[in-house]
Specification:
Blueprint (H helix, E strand, L loop, with lengths): L6 H18 L19 E5 L2 E4 L4 E4 L2 H4 L8 H13 L11 H13 L9 E7 L2 H18 L7 E5 L8 H5 L4 H4 L10 E3 L13 H19 L3 E6 L3 E2 L5 E2 L3 H13 L2 E5 L23 E4 L11 E6 H5 L20 H16 L2 H16 L8 E7 L2 E6 L15 H11 L2 E2 L6 E4 L7 H19 L4
Parallel strand pairs: 3-15, 5-6, 5-7, 7-10, 10-11
Antiparallel strand pairs: 1-2, 2-3, 4-12, 8-9, 11-12, 13-14, 14-16
Helix pairs in contact: 3-11, 4-11, 8-9, 12-14, 13-14
Bound molecules: pyridoxal-5'-phosphate.
Length: 467
């Protein structure tokens, strides 16, 4: 056992670990060339609450909830115990032809929580997948297949938003519009029609977020006027385009998009994989627009950050179109681990925490405190904007504040910020030059203060140019 008192020994242990890791592991979303020197790999031996404990004996504040999945802290005892209980009963069973309590009960609980519009038939069916991208694939295939089942052959197209992100598998990647991820694979991908993002960052001088959103909605109306009849679905991330740099928009867009989809018989897929489960201030982001989608895709926070699981919720009418004597009409999509009981048990316990504790109410206070602590950063000459939606706060770094001129890519502003933060015990993983806070909901005030202080330093480190 490592002696925590001896920093030299701890560092040597961490170095040996890094060597061993890099000999065999290919890490996600990483230019592996940057390891081990440019990017310090952080070996973690334990997690507790918002803290990750490194094998170097240091603690790291997980300000990004480990890619937005963690809600109630690492190694949350309630969720850990629920998984252990379930593992002792039934770890997994094929979900085709079989049923289990966690899968059934989770579906009931999710449907009861789902966004609802008074005049619209509610979401009544749940299909499970193993991760967010797979959930998006399910929704895309179901939307297309639904029209086929109804005898409609011509609806083969999708509409997606500029700067959107829906995952990395080829179908999901097709719907995304982030060149860094998409461009190289473009020859392999579906070609949705991309419409302007309602992103408030793009507001014209004096325009305001709502007018900006409605202007984007008019562009959607124009596209639907031309190809509405050939389109099966519109896919979007409600309120925050997370991977696209935590860009935020006014809910008016969602209301108008919902109306336009109805007008043209186009299905609406709400990808709440990142924004669901309280991230934006409400349980689901769609609630802030008062809309109900035809497909609701959930993952990430669904299991509190413990296990991969996705759920796709849809309406009875869509489900019914798949019912027939032929297998051709059926949704013959499956993943080996569909509806895994351990993951479902983790998700049920996560929802139980929402029921037992005033999570959203507490988050309102935490979000207000985040705003307060970030406010002074807005005055920094290299900060173009500090924006926030609920428990997501983003800081847009620029080379020049008034013109919003971006940093040259060679400056590696985001990387410098990352390195500074890690060196000071905070995990900030910028999206390009956008720093953001998306902490586990259990973050406390001293940690928030540390986060603000280190962020300030990270901004200075990002903009500092070595001669
Ligand atoms: C992360 C994410 C996905 C993909 O989920 P994975 O589990 O990483 O495949 C899809 N959509 C949105 C909005 C996401 O943020």
């Amino acid at each position: 056992m490592l002696s925590e008192a001896d920093p030299a020994e701890a560092n040597a242990h961490a170095d040996a670990w890094r060597k061993r890791d890099l000999a065999v592991l290919w890490h996600p979303c990483t230019q592996m060339r940057e390891h081990p020197d440019t990017l310090p790999l952080v070996p973690v031996r334990r997690g507790r609450g918002v803290w990750l404990e490194g094998v170097d004996g240091r603690n790291y504040l997980d300000a990004v909830s480990s890619w937005w999945v963690n809600l109630f802290g690492h190694a949350n005892p309630r969720i850990a115990a629920a998984i252990a209980r379930q593992a002792g009963e039934l770890e997994h069973v094929i979900l085709a032809g079989f049923s289990h309590e966690p899968g059934m009960a989770l579906a009931e609980e999710l449907l009861a929580l789902a966004p609802r519009e008074a005049d619209r038939p509610p979401l009544t069916k749940v299909f499970y997948a193993d991760n967010g991208s797979a959930g998006v694939e399910v929704a895309l295939k179901m939307a297309f297949h639904h029209f086929r089942n109804r005898g409609v052959e011509g609806r083969t197209r999708f509409i997606a938003l500029h700067n959107g992100y829906h995952g990395e598998t080829l179908g999901a990647l097709s719907m995304g519009d982030i060149p860094l991820y998409r461009k190289i694979y473009a020859p392999l991908l579906l070609q949705p029609t991309f419409v302007p993002s309602p992103d408030a960052w793009d507001a014209l001088p004096g325009e305001g977020a709502e007018a900006c959103a409605l202007r984007a909605a008019e562009a959607l109306a124009d596209v639907l006027a031309v190809q509405g009849g050939e389109t099966c679905a519109l896919i979007l991330e409600p309120l925050v385009q997370c991977a696209g740099g935590m860009r935020m928009y006014h809910p008016a867009y969602l209301r108008r998009a919902r109306e336009l989809c109805d007008e043209h018989g186009v299905l609406l897929i709400a990808d709440e994989i990142a924004v669901g489960f309280g991230r934006t201030g409400t349980m689901f982001a769609c609630e802030q627009a008062g809309i109900q989608p035809d497909f609701l895709c959930l993952s990430k926070g669904l299991t509190g950050g413990f296990l991969p699981l996705a759920a796709v919720l849809t309406r009875e009418e869509i489900y019914e179109s798949f019912l027939d004597d032929s297998r051709e009409r059926a949704f013959l999509h499956s993943h080996s681990y569909t509806g895994n009981p351990l993951a479902c048990a983790a998700a049920r316990e996560t929802l139980a925490i929402f029921r037992d504790e005033p999570v959203l109410e507490r988050n309102r206070a935490t979000a207000a405190r985040m705003a307060e602590l970030a406010a002074p950063l807005a005055g920094h000459p290299n900060v173009a904007e500090v924006r926030q939606t609920g428990m997501i706060l983003a800081i847009e770094l620029v080379a020049e504040r008034t013109s919003r001129k971006a940093f040259a890519p060679e400056q590696r502003a985001g990387l410098r910020a990352y390195r500074h933060a890690i060196a000071h015990g905070v995990v900030l993983r910028p999206l390009g030059d956008v720093l953001y806070w998306m902490p586990p909901y259990c973050i406390e005030d001293d940690a928030l203060q540390q986060l603000a202080t280190v962020t300030r330093g990270a901004i200075d480190a990002a903009v500092h140019v070595e001669s």
